[in-house]
Amino acid sequence: MSSDDVNELYASFSVYTSGKKLFDVRAVKSVNSIDCLHGLRALSVLYIIWGHRVGIALSTGLVNLTAFREWYLKLTSSVFNTHQVAVDTFLFMGALLLVWSMIPNLDRFGPLTDQHNYQSQENCQKWWWGVFLHIQNYMNPEEFCLDQSWYLAVDFQLFLVSPLLIYPAWKYGWKYVWVLPGLTIASAVYIFIISYQLEIRCIVRSPQGLLDLFRYVYYPTHARMGPWFMGMFLGFVLHKTRGTKIRINPIVKFIMWILCLSTFAAITLGAMHLFKQGSYNVTTQLQNSFYLSLYRNGWSVALCWLVFACHNGTGGIIRWFLTLPQWQPIGRMCLSMYLVGWMYQIIAIGNYKLPIYFEEIEWIHMYWGDIFGTIILATVLYLACETPFMRIESYLYKKYNKQKTEA
């Protein structure tokens, strides 16, 4: 190993070097960069942290639950209450970037409260091995060790099966790429059937109903795979058009934006009647099953146009906002923020000495405290663990490619 190799490996553990790259906010203009994803990553992880704040507080217990329900049912509050789709945005982006980065290589080379703490400790003593195997969403969906690890399991399982779809699509073209939307539809059909048969609704009224929702709709990979496969589909489209700007008829562009924004609005605002108090006996099971089966997949379809349009330079003010370089630091350490944010919030809420009350302004204030504390902890985790391993992996990959080329 040469001295340059040793220096490069040592530099992987340099907080100064990694910190400079983390907080570098210079705009990068490259055909190999999808700039709008920085903004999507950052906004999604901020959305998730808000959802965790609400979920942990509710599970701990609110004294004035009626006040929270009144706020929750406001039309203006619905934007804050559909945070679940932020996770689907990450699945969508993960698949998109997997295809975006993998296809060129194929082209080139060929073939805490006490109750929270106690329950978490008990589950981890029993199922700690499931965390490392990424199978908890199927093996023990009711007793997760580290609640946020369900996403890692889904992401890892989809990552494993993706090459089985990427290679045939790369080898044989579009006739195999169209399998991806078909799998998305299959996922939606499964959710509709299982939710209809088990009478799973958007608003849960019993512990068993909540258990069924998580076990059959929220945690299983086959129920969450729709956004991933739509991300893969867009990845192929962007790869085929890499380096070229697609000319789109202004009327078509206008219609697509209307459909895209209408889909986002319908998902975040248009289903409020399903969540209203008393709606359990007013809305039908058919309505609930349709919404559960379509809202995640509809969100990912709308994301396809948003990312495609922004990457193609036709996103207007939306593209400007999502490509702001200031999003880049949060976008880079969004995984670290996701992992530490939940634990930070459990510790913060677990230290309360008084009963928890809901007050809108106060919760927004606490939310920004969550963001600040999470960013500090995530920065430490990112610089101490994530960056060194990424740089070592990059070094080994470059060495492998160099040896393969020389051979």
Automatic annotation (TrEMBL):
The chain crosses the membrane at residues 47-65, 85-103, 149-170, 177-196, 216-239, 251-275, 299-322, 334-354, 366-385. Signal peptide: none annotated. Keywords: Membrane, Transmembrane, Transmembrane helix. Coiled coil: none annotated. InterPro entries: O2_lipid_transport_reg. This is CLUMA_CG002656, isoform A.
